[in-house]
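Query structure, 212 tokens:
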């Protein structure tokens, strides 16, 4: 039992089901020790061969968030212009993306590094890379849950997948880091959108005990 009389399992199930993606934040800074606890929780995720391929770049200074948001916005604009989208809609999207990144007290760029993973000369390398992606996603889920446990909001943003080289260059990330996502983090400015999930009956299947 925890001091409040809640069992560890009750607490875990509540954290898992009550976490919501938060996209708007108060300006309040997140204390360094809280950030360290959250990143430590990420570090305890399981990983393929326990190689821990995840890497995190934590941005708190406006300068870096601005630099990242501008670089990603420029690329978003270029891609959507090439798609033939309306200029007004593109500019709205770019402005929204800029506001979301610079408006978060903390931006964590989640990357992976293949240097400690196994190497194959053939197609198995794709599986090895996928293992690194999966392991990094596990760490990111830990991060989201830890943020929620700390009373903070967070949101996973996938945009770096569309422009990893832009993210690496804007932040001068160490060579070998492959950007996977951005996690924005801070004190929530409001509740997240109510979430729904598919019923268990729709997503699970148990084969009959008796052979056909
Ligand atoms: C791989 C992944 C990519 C996501 N990318 C984005 C994103 O780019 N922008 C965004 O606002 N939310 C993004 N999300 C958050 C999802 O929209 C959110 O988890 C989903 O709608 C369920 O809502 P909940 O997290 O509040 O339960 C992403 C989540 C995951 C796991």
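Result returned for the query:
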């Amino acid at each position: 039992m925890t001091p409040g009389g809640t069992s560890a399992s009750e607490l875990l199930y509540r954290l898992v089901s009550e976490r919501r993606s938060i996209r708007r934040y108060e300006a309040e800074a997140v204390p360094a020790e809280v950030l360290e606890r959250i990143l430590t929780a990420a570090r305890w995720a399981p990983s393929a061969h326990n190689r821990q391929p995840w890497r995190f770049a934590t941005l708190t200074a406006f300068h870096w968030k601005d630099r990242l948001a501008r670089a990603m916005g420029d690329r978003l604009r270029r891609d959507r212009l090439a798609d033939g989208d309306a200029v007004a809609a593109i500019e709205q999207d770019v402005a929204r993306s800029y506001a979301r990144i610079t408006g978060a007290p903390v931006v964590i760029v989640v990357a992976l590094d293949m240097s400690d993973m196994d190497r194959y000369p053939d197609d198995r390398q794709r599986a090895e890379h996928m293992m690194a992606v999966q392991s990094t996603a596990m760490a990111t889920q830990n991060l989201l849950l830890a943020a929620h446990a700390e009373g903070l909001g967070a949101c996973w943003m996938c945009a770096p997948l569309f422009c990893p080289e832009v993210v690496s260059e804007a932040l001068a990330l160490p060579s070998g880091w492959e950007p996977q996502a951005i996690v924005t983090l801070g004190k929530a400015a409001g509740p997240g959108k109510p979430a729904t999930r598919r019923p268990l009956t729709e997503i699970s299947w148990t084969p009959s005990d008796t052979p056909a």
